[in-house]
Write a structure and sequence with these properties.
The complex is a heterodimer of chains A (477) and B (221). With 477 residues, chain A is an alpha/beta fold. In chain A, 53% of the residues lie in helices and 11% in strands. Among the domains of chain A are: 249 residues, NagB/RpiA/CoA transferase-like (Rossmann fold); 79 residues, no CATH class. In chain A, the strands form three sheets. Chain A has a six-stranded parallel β-sheet with strand order 1-10-7-4-2-3, with helices on both faces. In chain A, helix 2 packs across helix 12, helix 3 crosses helix 12 and helix 16 runs parallel beside helix 19. Chain B has 221 residues and is α/β, with parallel strands linked by helices. Chain B is 31% helix and 22% strand. Chain B contains seven helices and eleven strands. A six-stranded parallel β-sheet of chain B has the order 1-11-7-4-2-3, with helices on both faces. In chain B, strand 5 and strand 6 form a beta hairpin. Chain B is globular and about 70 Å long. The chains are: A alpha/beta (477), B alpha/beta (221). At the A-B interface, helix 2, helix 3, helix 4, helix 8 and helix 10 of A face helix 1, helix 6, helix 7, strand 8 and strand 9 of B.
Chain lengths: 477, 221
Amino acid sequence: MEKTAKIDFRGNTRSMSPAMVAATQKSARTALVKRAEVVREFGEESWQKLRRAGHDLRMHAMMNLDRYLAMAEEKVVAAGGQVHWARDAEEVHSIVLDIASRHGVRNIVKVKSMVTEEIELNHALQNRGISVYETDLGEFIVQMAGQRPSHITAPALHMTKEEIADLFREKLKVETTPDPGMLTEIARKVLREEFLSAGMGISGGNFLIAETGTLVLVTNEGNGRMCTSLPPVHIAIVGIEKILPDWESAAVMLKLLARSVSGSKITAYNTFITGVREGGPKEFHLVLLDNGRSRILADEKAREALACIRCGACMNICPVYNQVGGHAYGAVYPGPIGSILTPLLLGTGAAGGLTFASTLCGACSEICPVMIPITEILLHLRRRCVEGDDVESPSVSGKIRTAARAGRYVMESPLLYRVAARLGNVLLENRRDGDWIKSMPAPLDRWTMSRPFPAPEGDFRAWWKSRKKKKETGVNE
Amino acid sequence: MSKYSPTREKIFAALRSALGSSAASTIPPLPDSARFSPRNAETPDLEVERMIREVERLSGRALNIRSQDEFVRALEALIRDEGVRTAVLSGHPFHESHGVTELLKRSGVDIVSPESDRRRLADCDLGITVADAALPETGTSLLRTTKGQPDVLSLLPRIHLVLVPREALKADMQQAFAAAKNDRHFVLVSGCSRTADIEKVLTLGVHGPKSFHVWICSQFN
């Protein structure tokens, strides 16, 4: 297998523009405020029950994944659909190219789908001379700019309307002002023609309901409906973890999803597709993709990551994501969920560094609509990184491991700890410059190279003792 | 030889080894904690009010229509205000029993067949559908896809009008699903096609309808 290039999170953060970070924060804040409103309206207690139901039904589906997949497959086939299985990106590419060439397809319209980003499908199709149009407005913009989405539900949030207007003028040869309404109207005209003439539509899937083999697509713009109703062939590429047991489960998940994504109670369109229908596409192909998911399932401590429904709430609330933006994560899934999914999918050797791109504050686990214990999985993966795992070699050097061991030894002995703390204070005093310590010796200079380190205001033990004494004597501080 | 592809067999083998399960074992029932009680309906009048409120929150226009007279007046106003010249109606008995086609023709609107070419549908001003269920909680209409009510009918024309028989209002998504879950295709529609992909500015009508109307119709003739 081809070795994946190592993701350099720290390096990536250095090339982020402040404008991009500002746009990220604005977008995240808007989504969070609206989300808080709809959750309050739903009732906090009910919301917590709903999250519990979401978590438990997703994990029930994961723990019976093989059998639910077999059930879904049987139902799709009975409804006239064709089911294909793929272990990795290459297998999906060859399935899709095969269907496309059988129908002589030259133009494809696509609905935004994380899994097709994961397998870089557009690249594979374009290499064979097939044009692919991303039809979600944000994705259409990002594709034209030759970039990668920076957020899973708002792919172009890092771009300003002025940049988008420039892009439209250059690539679409149109005259436009940087007005979101006008830009949207231009995209509508361009894409409507593509919808009506495309030979094939490709979508992902938000859910696959095992009970009836029904594919669920959750969209706002209507492009999902266009792509799956107008072209003569529809291919849906779906990760095997998208399965839901039944329709009752679907009702729970749909209530969780829209509220978590954007603070809407529901999206404009939810489409339910079971096999082929009269008047719809002549062929319906469902490609079920593993691409590392069965390996995640085998890791008992990490498998809850498979419950993810790609809502993006963990990104919006993450203090790290909000400082660096989505591109810093160097992969398809950014933010806290990306920090666990990317190393799980690509291996800790390539992406283990992402598990350290977190403060472990836990906000992500608390907002997650399916209660994925993201911080616990981060810790588990950090451990896997340091100790080495059977996925890839350890990415942390022996020096740091030795330092960590020495640290543990010092922390475990009260006497050694006290001595070390005093020594630290004395050493830092020389380097003090007002409230800040401007430089530290290696390896601590990694911190002071990019930002100041606050100098200690005094000795904690001494302060604590004096505080206790004052309390006893009735003096308030 | 197995009737399945070797790739499928390998994926299933990996899943079973990950779970320590076997192909023969049956699926246990879902735990109670994985269920969520559906919402309870308020009084029918309050449900209608809620439906109207929620549709308007989604930038749609909603009306409670209680008589044929009100229906006629609302339709004439819609044609006038939105400049409707062509319309496509789903093949639903409601249209016939309420004389919708005649009313439109009388106002000078050309009727396009739902089975006509998609480019004709795309040029059409107004698409009229009938909801099979509606959810006041979210202002949602459930449209079953049939030969007479293809998906594109509520998608390609620039204006979408959904007629919701009052009795189609359901308290929760679960009840709405019960009626449609064995269909090959259906859609939940909640407002106009919309996007906020450019600087989080809400823009209506990105790919589908730019204008959305819901009329809740009590039984009348």
